[in-house]
Amino acid sequence: MKNVIVALIVGVFIAAYSSLFVINEGQRGIVIQFGKVKRDSQNTTVVYEPGLHLKIPLIEKVRILDARIQTLDGEADRFVTSEKKDLIVDSYVKWRIEDFETYYLKTSGIKSNAEGLLDRKFSNGLRSEIGSRTIAEIVSGERDELMDKALLLVAESARELGIEVVDVRVKKINLPEEVSSFIYDRMRAERNAVAAEHRSQGKEQAEFIKADIDAKITVMIADAERNLRSVKGEGDAQAAKIYADVYNQNPEFYAFLRSLDAYKESFHSKNDVMLVKPDGEFFKYMGQVGK
């Protein structure tokens, strides 16, 4: 009897424990009863708020869902513009569960299933909007309009999943790598051509400046040489005048000095041999022959 009572107590405890469930902050819960979402007397889905709640053990199962805003941030995708040009668009979607019953029935309450379906709907909407615009329109002021229309399109289709789309943003728009490489190569070639033209103009100006400087230097050297010859001529004239004045003061003494200089230069080396008449003009100041 005692064992039966203990078993009953344990059974009651287990039943009471299994009938309790907790919903944490940021979560919501729905109860599945006989494979269907539990509804109240007004045929409205019962959504449990954060807190402690009761359920019928073994009959009702609780599915806890994340009610916070989620971010769908997949990899960048390739889109085609109205000009048949490819663009690589990187974007993200902010979403949260709006209708918990619809969300559960469409996705089985699995986040990856929901994001897979939402990503396809968003890509289709964005592809439609980008396909109706040119590259210039997409990267210009119409970018905000593009995101607004994409938000409306994905928001309407996302309601089928019980999802509310909070925001849609395009983070980055790039050209495909092969197109970017072609454009960069063309820009590089254009810049190189401009640089070559600038270098050519600079070289031409450098040659002009060099020629101008060389001409000025030539003129300056010519002026300097002319001034040098003028100064030298004046000096030679003054020297000649001085020599002439000295010669006029005492011609005989000046002639004697000139003779001494001549003797000095003539007998500079012992190996020199001269044939000169003794009574010639050269020995005028050496005295008379025979004396």
Brief descriptors of the model:
4-stranded antiparallel beta sheet, 7 helices, 10 strands, 291 residues, alpha+beta
Description of the molecule:
By secondary structure, the protein is α+β, with helices and mostly antiparallel strands. It is 54% helix and 20% strand. It is built from seven helices and ten strands. Strands 2, 3, 4 and 6 form a four-stranded antiparallel sheet that branches. Strands 7, 8, 9 and 10 form a four-stranded antiparallel sheet that branches. A two-stranded antiparallel sheet has the order 1-5. A hairpin with a 2-residue loop joins β2 (27-33) and β3. The longest helix is centred in the C-terminal third of the chain and has 73 residues, at 177-249. It is rod-shaped and about 180 Å long. The chain starts with a helix and ends in a 25-residue tail after the last helix. The mean pLDDT is 79.
Number of strands: 10
Strand content: 15-25%
- Sheet bearing the most strands, described? 4 strands, antiparallel
The radius of gyration is: 57 Å
Structural class, please?
alpha+beta
Mean pLDDT: 79
Quote the distance from N terminus to C terminus.
187 Å
> What is the string of SSEs from the N terminus onward?
HEEEEEEEEEHHHHEHH
Low-confidence parts, pLDDT < 50 over ≥5 residues? none
Task: Tell the overall outline.
Answer: rod-shaped
Helix content: 40-55%
State the oligomer: single chain
Q: Tally the helices: what do you get?
A: 7
